[in-house]
Amino acid sequence: MKTPLLALLLACAGGAWAQAPAAAAASAPASAASAPAPNPHSGPEHTARIRSAHFTRLQERLGAAPGQLRETCRFESEVTTLPPPGRVALTFDDGPEPGHTEQIIEVLARHKVPATFFVIAEKAQRHADLLALQRGLPGARVGSHSWSHPNFHQIDADAQRREIDHADEALAGHLLPAEAPAKLFRYPYGNSSCEGNQRLRERGFRIVGWHIDSCDWAFDGDGSVTLHEALSCGVLPAFRRDFLGHVLAQLRAHRGGIVLLHETHRITVQQLDSLVQRLQDEGYSFGVPDDPAFEADLR
Q1: Helix (H, G, I), strand (E, B), or coil: what is residue 275?
Q2: Do the Cβ atoms of 149 and 162 come closer than 8 Å?
Q3: What are the structural domains, with CATH classification, of the chain?
Q4: Which of 1, 114, 233, 278 has the most other CB atoms within 10 Å of its CB?
């Protein structure tokens, strides 16, 4: 039975959810054993995959029986524990991204703000200079975002294991600074699995989700979000044309937290300086997800 909220979301989305599985399958990233397509992790096609996964996740969460998602470990990336008050951890997925990574590092370095970069390993191999910039930011962490950024809900357990292992091997020496307690991993699209969780623990990873999803992918076109994007992202009506206002409102509501951003989206690059400045002006401090203050928020 559809809840009233689910019915409203489905009506607003039109055919988006019905088309999501087929669209995602048609544009699924190549496996680790295949040659990657040119620039497969940025641009309109990549954004379309994020949108599809986002809507599918929300549909499943609203329609699933109590306990079903927990038993299958499917959606563990949305952190439900309270963050440490006044503490923010900025995290950036899908890099390194030429032309964007450099600007992000410049802003963070100027403000003396650390961050965590969840990199796609095959992309990091192609842009070793940008990976070095990320590692060189004082206080920064580099985490794994898998080898080729597949949807773990669309590949079997063996393929999931290969994605985790290949990335871990390719990023050896980058993931675990001397002072760090564990390696960090974030699932592509936030789509977790019990099999993936087990393999990550075997390889010494902590799994990092987020308190605040910036939904930069939705704002990245003309700076506004559609109604069904706003509903799925929790964007209040006042902020449907205001990316910065949305992120700040979410951080104030949570009183801090781990923030999901993407290196691939221009709006994040364009608004990062203003975001950091506003947070500093409001007295927030910055850290990384494996700081002791965020211990309860990791898996």
Answers
A1: helix
A2: no
A3: 4-26+41-72 (no CATH), 87-297 (3.20.20.370)
A4: 233
Alpha carbon distance 141, 151 (integer Å): 23
Other beta carbons within 10 angstroms of residue 298's beta carbon come to 18
Q: Could you read off the pLDDT of 150-169 as tens digits, one per residue?
A: 999 999 999 999 999 999 99
200 in Cβ contact with 175 (< 8 Å): no
Calpha distance 296→165 (Å, rounded): 26
Q: What is the DSSP letter of 210?
A: B
pLDDT digits (tens, 9 = 90+) for 99-132: 999 999 999 999 999 999 999 999 999 999 999 9
Residue 178: per-residue pLDDT = 66
Residue 222 has pLDDT above 70, yes or no: yes
> pLDDT value at position 70?
77
Q: Omega before 289 cis (within 30°)?
A: no
* C-alpha span between 35 and 39 (Å, rounded): 12
Q: Could you tell me the two tokens for 227?
A: 């109604």
Catalytic residue flag (residue 94): no
3 state SS for 144-207? ECCCCCCCCCCCCHHHHHHHHHHHHHHCCCCCCCCCCCCEEECCHHHCCCHHHHHHHHHCCEEE
Cβ proximity of 5 and 62 under 8 Å: yes
Q: Please report how the helices 4-13 and 16-26 are oriented relative to each other, as an axis angle in degrees rounded to 10.
A: 60
- Catalytic site residue from 41, 46, 54, 93: 93
* 169-176: Cβ within 8 A, 24+ apart: 170/121, 170/122, 170/124, 170/125, 171/119, 171/121, 171/124, 171/142, 171/144, 174/124, 174/131, 174/135, 174/142, 175/142, 175/143, 175/144, 176/204
Active-site residue identified among 145, 246, 262, 265: 262
Model pTM?
A: 0.85
